[in-house]
Amino acid sequence: MPAACHESCCARKETAMSEMTPAMAACLEGQHNHFRWFHVEDVKGPALDELAAAFGLHELAVEDCRAAGTRAKLEDYESHLFLVVNTLHFDPQKNTCWFGEFDIFVGKDFVITVHVGPSRTAAAVLPRFKSDPKLGHPARLLHALLHVIVGRYMPVLDTIEDRIDAIEDQAYARPSPRLLTELFAVKRALVEFRRVCTTMREVANLLLTRHEPWLRSHQAYFRDIYDHVVRSLDFVDTYRDILTGVLDVHLTATANRTNEIMKVLTIFATIATPFLLITSFYGMNFERLPLLHDPFGALWATLAMLGIGLLMLLFFKRRGWY
Question: Do the strands 36-40 and 110-114 form a parallel or antiparallel pair, or are they unpaired?
Fold first, then answer.
């Protein structure tokens, strides 16, 4: 396949395929025996409709391209396949995870990719598409696109792992209510990550079971995608187990700290009981009380209270209560 066809059919970043360009029109009208890749970044423009009419794209698939928030899936429309794949993003400041959408139409002689706004995935694959003749095949180009998307899962997981390490260190050093909030936020992010990976695993598995000749001959590449997603899922499950352990440590440490505080308060309250008993005894409204009129009565009462308190402390110490 000539390199000129690559350049005329590929989406250039400056045009963003918001409308049907002369290069697109030429690629649609001629060179029907060549493989073509179109990339659309304006889903509300006419380019997507004209491509749908030219290649017979199913109206439900086109509707999915224009509806944000679609989960990963694979649909078979006889003349072409339609894939929705999800990119993943993580904000370490807010401990939140969200997914993006990248839509792919695949036929035996064309690939059409759709993304709202500039796409890092298309930008990463475009230079290889122009220079590597092997990507002039729908299965190989599909693999290249999926490989870039799932290949970015691991850096996201590495960022999440760093947050988990920080939370774990803080849980052992000094647990706090804020730590619990961060822990649950990261756990929710992992739940979202796992949900995306689960649907992506289903998509990769469906690609492995396709019977189209142009796909079946390249199943080894899609096994690579499947392995990447499964590996990401394994890491997600491991991190969730670690967070569960950190949560147990946090709750145990908090309970132990509460018990220590209660122990100290109980000791103080117990020691103060004789003080209250003696002072309340001499606070009664009677004139004839022991040592009431003694010049050293207050001193003896104070010494008695201190002595009883000291004896109680020694008793607690010998019993190992503090």
Answer: parallel
**What is the count of structural domains for the chain?**
1
Residue the block writes with tokens 């695993």: 201
| Within-domain flag for 272 | no
* Domain with 195 in it: 3-254
Residue 147 · residue 218 · CB < 8 Å: no
Q: Is residue 307 part of a domain?
A: no
Domain annotation covers residue 231: yes
Assign residue 131 the CATH number of its domain. 3.30.460.20
Q: What are phi and psi for residue 309, nearest 5 degrees?
A: -60, -40
Dihedral pair phi/psi, residue 108, rounded to 5°:
-70, -20
Per-residue pLDDT in tens (0 to 9) along the chain, 322 residues: 323 233 334 433 333 333 345 455 555 554 555 788 999 988 888 888 989 998 999 999 999 999 888 899 999 998 899 999 999 998 888 888 888 999 999 998 889 999 998 889 999 999 898 888 888 889 999 999 999 999 999 999 999 999 999 888 888 777 777 888 889 999 999 999 999 999 999 999 999 988 888 888 888 899 999 999 999 999 999 999 999 998 888 888 888 888 888 888 787 787 777 777 777 766 666 566 676 666 766 777 778 778 887 887 787 777 776 6
Please answer whether residues 180 and 170 qualify as being in contact, where contact means their C-beta atoms are separated by less than 8 angstroms: no
